[in-house]
Design brief:
Order of helices and strands: EHEHEEHEEHEHEHEHEEHE
Structural class: alpha/beta
Helix content: 25-40%
Bound molecules: flavin mononucleotide
Radius of gyration: 18 Å
Strand content: 15-25%
Number of strands: 12
Oligomer: single chain
Strand order of the largest sheet: 2-1-4-6-7-8
Distance between the termini: 21 Å
């Protein structure tokens, strides 16, 4: 069973590769959370692997993923093989520790974890932009053997194996900046559509949590996860976030369908 969350497709692409090779069911965290009266009970088969795949947000785990972990019940969990794979533009800080702690609280044990460097999609602050087309291409190419290697390790059910890029100042990034990001930055309020909007509804379709309704122009509700799918998918680059996104690039994983 592989649970995934993804905004611009990087994590979805990874999750798809893993599910195919490990022959595990692929489950969208966002879709599960939208189902009314969902009991959040997942019956485990003997010996199946449990994976969580998600992007890194501000050197931590997206709150929607933590919420899902808190809510779910893995029925007949008996020390099943459990792992995570996160996608990031550069580094993950102490997200590994955050993940291990969140599953530990549930009484589960994490056997392995990996980070995969993918094209960056974060553009909401000064100094942050998408990668150049060359870097984007290189990252996409290098991710292929990295994911193959992860699949090999998962097939062997490696224990206590963590291949993660922690980066510099990990403590400050995860313990100080991440909580501020969660408190103040996860909001759709600054989003707006310019007159270039053609009401194509791609933003509505791409939003993993169905937080956008297009009525002439997109209207955001208050369930935004800050995944930036709406900004990046727009064919006219009509979606902007305050002044932060002016003149910035766009990226959406080319191997994933929305
Ligand atoms: C809100 C937000 C915060 C991010 N923070 C980080 C970060 O701390 N470190 C990093 O390397 N990449 C960061 N990124 C980049 C994404 O983790 C990366 O592009 C990821 O592969 C996107 O996955 P997705 O396409 O599945 O949504 C951030 C992206 C977003 C949207």
């Amino acid at each position: 069973m592989i649970f995934y969350f993804s905004g611009t497709g990087n994590s979805k692409w990874i999750a798809q590769q893993l599910a195919q090779v490990q022959q595990e069911e692929l489950i969208s965290i966002a879709a599960e959370l939208q189902q009314k009266d969902n009991p959040f009970r997942y019956q485990l088969r003997n010996n199946e692997k449990i994976g969580f795949v998600f992007p890194i947000y501000s050197w931590g785990i997206p709150p929607i993923v933590l919420e899902f972990i808190r809510k779910i019940d893995l029925v007949e969990y008996h020390h099943h093989y459990l792992f995570f794979v996160c996608s990031c533009g550069d580094d993950i800080g102490l997200a590994k520790e955050m993940f291990i702690k969140s599953v530990h609280r549930k009484g589960w044990e994490c056997q392995s974890g990996f980070s995969v460097i993918m094209p960056n999609n974060y553009v909401l602050m000064k100094g942050f932009d998408t990668d150049s087309k060359e870097v984007e291409q290189r990252k996409l190419e290098e991710a292929v053997p990295t994911v193959t290697e992860i699949n090999d390790l998962l097939a062997k059910r490696v224990q206590n194996t963590f291949h993660c890029v922690k980066g510099k100042f990990a403590y400050v990034k995860t313990r100080l900046i991440y909580p501020l990001f969660v408190k103040y930055q996860i909001t759709a309020k600054p989003f707006y559509a310019t007159d270039d909007c053609i009401a194509c509804k791609l933003c509505e379709k791409a939003c993993p949590v169905k937080n956008i309704k297009v009525d002439g122009k997109p209207i955001w509700s208050n369930n935004c996860t800050s995944c930036l799918a709406c900004y990046h998918i727009c064919p006219r680059q009509a979606i902007q976030y305050g002044k932060e996104t002016r003149g910035k690039g766009q990226y959406f994983n080319p191997n994933v369908r929305i």
